[in-house]
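Example S7 (structure tokens).
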């Protein structure tokens, strides 16, 4: 993901990149609309127009779409017909972490994320779509007319996105700070109401509290302060393997845990290719990536285990008062 734009040259580059992404978004949205598929555009241009004053202030490098879960297979067929191929299925992630699949077009390296829910929501995808899609705003992107989340739902998404990526994602924190500066209290009240409908108060509150002004707002909105180790790990930018320990602890049954360990040691090829450049160097590179994966995990394990234990301890102390 591209860094937030700052200097003039960076803003120009970000604006040019945004135009290229918008053109692809328009192409994809036009094809989905022609197929009769209802879709909401997320992040990218929606955050840029809601929270920033001019093009290039907020960079983005891919297209994020939210659909009803039942429409995902049909939408992905349309996206595949446009030359995209699936590059990240999310199969390695815990069930409660799965929310999207990533598609990329080799011809221009453009990416599309197909979401059926948002990270941090505690309801089934069908319920998430019903609540988030009932209020929407019109948006023109890349020559196509589409819809985006209404401001309260967009504010909720800003908070959830900050909680998902934590302090390691400067762009998410910047979006949060801008939203806290620009959006009126009434919009945040609406976002809190949506969080309650979607069982997302904990994640929304955790995201808001990553910014000083957000801590005060979370208190004003009376968002619950119960936290989970997973939220603490995400917000604190813990090593990625730390979430694996939390996933293992949350998995019940010896067989299920054994399957999880096996899948972690030997993940789907798309996962390795997406995250490890070595795995993208043909068959030999993929084989080498599989060979070094246990070594990578062993190297990360001590720090990840410490971070996970600290998160569980902090959550327990916090929730028990």
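Recovered sequence:
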């Amino acid at each position: 993901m591209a860094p937030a734009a700052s200097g003039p040259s960076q803003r120009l580059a970000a604006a040019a990149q945004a135009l290229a992404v918008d053109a692809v978004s328009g192409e994809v949205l036009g094809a989905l609309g022609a197929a009769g598929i209802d879709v909401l555009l997320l992040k990218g241009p929606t955050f840029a127009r809601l929270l920033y004053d001019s093009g290039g202030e907020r960079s983005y490098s891919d297209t994020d779409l939210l659909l009803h879960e039942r429409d995902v297979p049909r939408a992905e067929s349309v996206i595949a017909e446009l030359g995209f191929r699936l590059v990240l299925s999310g199969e390695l992630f815990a069930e409660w972490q799965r929310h999207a699949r990533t598609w990329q077009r080799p011809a221009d390296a453009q990416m599309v994320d197909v979401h059926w829910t948002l990270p941090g929501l505690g309801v089934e995808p069908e319920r998430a779509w019903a609540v988030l899609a009932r209020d929407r705003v019109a948006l023109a992107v890349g020559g196509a007319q589409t819809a985006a989340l209404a401001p309260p739902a967009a504010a909720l998404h800003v908070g959830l996105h900050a909680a998902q990526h934590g302090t390691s994602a400067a762009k998410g924190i910047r979006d949060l700070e801008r939203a806290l500066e620009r959006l009126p209290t009434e919009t945040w009240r609406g976002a809190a109401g949506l969080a309650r409908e979607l069982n997302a108060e904990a994640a929304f509150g955790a995201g808001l509290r990553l910014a000083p002004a957000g801590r005060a707002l979370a208190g004003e909105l009376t968002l619950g302060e119960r936290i989970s180790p997973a939220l603490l790990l995400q917000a604190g930018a813990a090593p990625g393997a730390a979430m694996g320990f939390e996933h293992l602890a949350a998995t019940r049954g010896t067989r299920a845990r054994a399957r999880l360990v096996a899948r972690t040691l030997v993940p789907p090829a798309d996962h390795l290719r997406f995250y490890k450049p070595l795995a993208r160097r043909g068959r030999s590179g993929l084989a080498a990536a599989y060979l070094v994966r246990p070594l990578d995990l062993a190297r990360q394990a001590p720090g990840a285990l410490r971070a996970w234990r600290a998160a569980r301890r902090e959550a327990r102390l916090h929730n028990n008062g």
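Notes on this example. The longest helix spans residues 282-319.
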